[in-house]
Amino acid sequence: MLRKRYIRCSNLWEVTFELPEFELPRGLEGESVHLVGDPNNWDRRATPMKRGNNGVFRTTLELEPGKWYEFRYLINGELWFNEWHADAYVPDGKGGDNCVVVTRAEAD
Known about the structure:
Layout: E1 2-7, E2 12-20, E3 33-37, E4 48-51, E5 56-63, E6 67-75, E7 79-81, E8 88-91, E9 97-103
Antiparallel strand pairs: 1-2, 2-5, 3-4, 3-6, 4-5, 6-7, 6-9, 8-9
């Protein structure tokens, strides 16, 4: 799930990325989950997601307004997983899709 909040004083969007354990493929134990994509130059280790007591992996980033950011989740360093609540999806050039989060130019 994606949660967005515009921070007017800094002209940034605070975007929280959440992946509940129950959305993981059946039988897969989520030992680690990383957010990988445009915000961190597709660095597989740059943005680990923390697991809360409720079983939801979560991380929050501040993103510039008026942009599309492609991303995916990397589970246990080997399985790519999509966000089912993404704003859009685009082909990744390898036969799959990347998720997209869109930040509007300004808040409503």
